[in-house]
Write a structure and sequence with these properties.
Layout (H helix, E strand, L loop, with lengths): L1 E2 L22 E9 L10 E3 L5 H11 L10 E3 L9 H12 L5 H12 L9 E12 L2 E11 L3 E8 L3 E8 L7 E6 L6 E6 L8 H5 L1 E3 L3 H23 L4 H17 L2 E3 H8 L3 H18 L6 E3 L2 H8 L5 E4 L3 E4 L7 E5 L5 E5 L6
Antiparallel strand pairs: 1-6, 2-3, 2-5, 4-11, 5-6, 6-9, 7-8, 9-10, 12-13, 14-15, 16-17
Helix pairs in contact: 2-3, 5-6, 5-8, 5-9
């Protein structure tokens, strides 16, 4: 369900390439319980108006901020009927009722069913209902579900006649163990997921039962990953390609995505690879890659700049020469030449105008 901004500035629509923007979001309802307990006599629900502005800011930094830099979107799936996806049905009920209500019992039951591995740790379950979460210039209601298994150590100081140090454990702004944020857009909803657990306890996928969403975010993300693999792994097997040539192609690829709002595969191929044989090889690799990864990428899509920003970090533009030099190549490939002298020593010749 789309919502309008409350006091959140509309200027936020024009800034940041984050997946979501959370500063203007509101916490409507918060539930927590230690899921190792069968029963709990403690109050389960805390209403939004019980939080001060600083407390709510802390909660958003812990529970929403980690999703702001996500570069992959998911959606609920089921092989037969989407309504048979347990978490989707529970989320749908919360969305329709605009309240967590007694649905938390179903969430706890489903989580326990999905996490029967003996190595799975007990922890605190948080279910939080949000309003005014901004994604793609639209405001949405959202549901966050969190399993906190590890707590941070901290020191609390007090002065009761003399300085006192108390060593405690609590939930801070470090990485979340396991979490998902469900944005109530069109069914089967957009889901962002975090799983920083161990391999022995990979139950979060069973709990969420999600798959890649066919949208511009994943089109951008997967196409960049596929392009990098082609340039660094496949092309050197087919052509005599120096490391500087590889870096040049990687730089051209990321430059195209940074400089354009819309992606056209045909335009991208010509601008980056130029050579007809290299383009044909790229198309063959693209088809094989999508088949092996079970993807269906569009030929034209809106570019998700947050994904570009993240992926640019792994598009290495560094030329490493033994253990002596690291050369960063960001621009014109023609300004660097590779050769071998009369003694058989390899060298690079670099042309430049200004020295910083």
């Amino acid at each position: 369900m789309k919502q309008g901004p409350s006091s959140f500035s509309k200027f936020a629509l024009q800034i940041s390439h984050s997946m979501i923007q959370y500063k203007g979001a509101d916490i409507q309802e918060l539930f927590f319980q230690n899921i190792s307990e069968e029963e709990s006599d403690t109050e389960k629900f805390i209403k939004r108006n019980e939080f001060s502005p600083s407390e709510e800011e802390t909660l958003k930094n812990i529970f929403l901020k980690p999703f702001a830099q996500a570069i992959t979107t998911y959606q609920f799936k089921h092989d037969i009927d989407i309504d048979l996806n347990v978490l989707f049905s529970l989320s749908k009920e919360i969305s329709q009722n605009d309240a967590i209500g007694e649905t938390y019992e179903g969430v706890i039951s489903h989580l326990k069913t999905a996490s029967r591995h003996p190595n799975i740790k007990p922890g605190d379950l948080f279910i939080i209902r949000f309003q005014n979460v901004l994604m793609n210039n639209e405001y949405y209601n959202a549901l966050g579900i969190y399993k906190i298994e590890r707590k941070d150590s901290f020191i609390e100081t007090s002065y009761l006649g003399m300085p006192v140090l108390e060593f405690k454990e609590g939930i801070g702004e470090k990485k979340l163990d396991k979490a998902c944020l469900i944005l109530f857009d069109e069914e089967p909803y957009t889901v962002l997921s975090i799983d920083n657990g161990t391999r022995e306890a990979e139950y979060w996928n069973d709990f969420t039962n999600i798959d890649y969403k066919k949208d511009h975010v994943n089109n951008t993300n997967h196409f960049l990953q596929m392009t990098k693999t082609f340039i660094t792994d496949q092309l050197p097997e087919e052509y005599e390609l120096s490391r500087t040539d590889q870096i040049d192609l990687l730089n051209r690829s990321i430059k195209y995505f940074k400089n354009n709002d819309e992606f056209s595969q045909q335009e991208f191929e010509v601008e980056v690879f130029e050579d007809a044989n290299a383009i044909e090889s790229f198309r063959n690799f693209d088809n094989q890659y999508q088949e092996e990864m079970d993807l269906d990428l569009a030929d034209n899509f809106k570019i998700a700049q947050n994904s570009v920003k993240k992926q640019a970090r792994i598009f290495k533009s560094i030329l490493k020469l033994d253990k002596n030099f690291h050369v960063y190549i960001h621009g014109n490939r023609e300004l660097i030449e590779r050769g071998t002298d009369s003694d058989g020593r390899k060298y690079y010749k670099i042309y430049y105008e200004n020295e910083a």
